[in-house]
UniProtKB/TrEMBL annotation:
Belongs to the complex I NDUFA5 subunit family. It comes from Apiospora phragmitis. The keyword Electron transport applies. InterPro entries: NDUFA5. It is found in: Mitochondrion inner membrane. It is a peripheral membrane protein. Residues 140-149 have a biased composition (Acidic residues). Keywords: Electron transport, Membrane, Mitochondrion, Mitochondrion inner membrane, Respiratory chain, Transport. This is ETC complex I subunit conserved region-domain-containing protein. Pfam families: ETC_C1_NDUFA5 (PF04716). Transmembrane segments: none annotated. Its main location: mitochondrion.
Length: 242
């Protein structure tokens, strides 16, 4: 039913093989994901890493690990067309610009910042889109705030600093790295994933993965695997039997 709602909300010619990112899915407030495959793999690998902090005997860890690994395998099996070739080109870019994707020096593409992240032995590129600015309240002109201007004659050291200010390159020019977007899943691949997981649209699966990752931190903080401080009364967890 949900896949039917997506089709009704995003009518396209039969020859189109890809879903249009950002289009309505048919569910209120939920829009077609831009990169569902890489997003889910990142969330699943991060969840599995965080679960390592819980004891292997914990039923919570065992159940979440089993479900997460099952869904991760389904996502990994669906490889977009041209993904292997793209991965090879991406690897060369990373080798050519090893310092271009560090946290303190993020690469720029289309106004967004690209940051490299390692999760579960795999490399991911995090895209941080800039927030929309209201020109009515925007006052900063893009220049670095280096304090007020000094009055009077300059010393030799101050004159040297001034020369560097006028000769240096703009901040963004040194950080720009041309980055190619990851190939996307076809509409048929997305539908196959949704059928195998059986939890609604792939966008809903992403929402669940986000929530599960947040829940892991809460469960680890609560140490749910430890015995209760107040022991339950005898028969408290015994449910009605026929």
């Amino acid at each position: 039913m949900r896949r039917t709602l997506r089709l009704l909300a995003d009518v396209k010619p039969a020859a189109t093989r890809y879903l249009n990112a950002g289009n309505p899915t048919g569910l209120t407030g939920l829009y077609t994901a831009t990169s569902p495959r890489s997003t889910l793999l990142y969330l699943y690998n991060t969840t599995l890493e965080k679960l390592q902090a819980a004891p292997e005997t914990s039923l919570y860890r065992q159940s979440v690990e089993a479900l997460t690994k099952h869904r991760k395998a389904i996502i990994e099996a669906a490889e977009p067309p041209g993904h292997a070739e793209w991965a090879e080109r991406a690897r060369k870019i990373l080798e050519q610009h090893p310092d271009g994707f560090k946290i303190e020096n993020r690469a720029a593409r289309d106004g967004a910042r690209m940051q490299i992240v390692e999760r579960g032995g795999q490399t991911y590129m995090m895209r941080h889109a800039p927030q929309e600015k209201d020109v009515r309240t925007e006052e900063w002109d893009g220049e670095i705030d280096e304090g007020g201007e000094l009055e009077g004659p300059r010393s030799e050291a101050e004159r040297a600093d001034q020369a560097l200010i006028f000769e240096r390159q703009p901040m963004d020019e040194a950080k720009k790295v041309k980055w190619e977007a990851e190939p996307q899943l076809t509409a048929d691949q997305v539908e196959e994933i949704e059928t195998k997981i059986g939890a609604g649209l792939i966008e809903e699966v992403i929402e669940v993965a986000h929530t599960e990752l947040k829940l892991v931190a809460t469960m680890l903080e609560a140490k749910v695997w430890e015995p209760l401080e107040e022991k339950p009364a005898e028969g408290q967890w015994t449910y009605f039997e026929r």
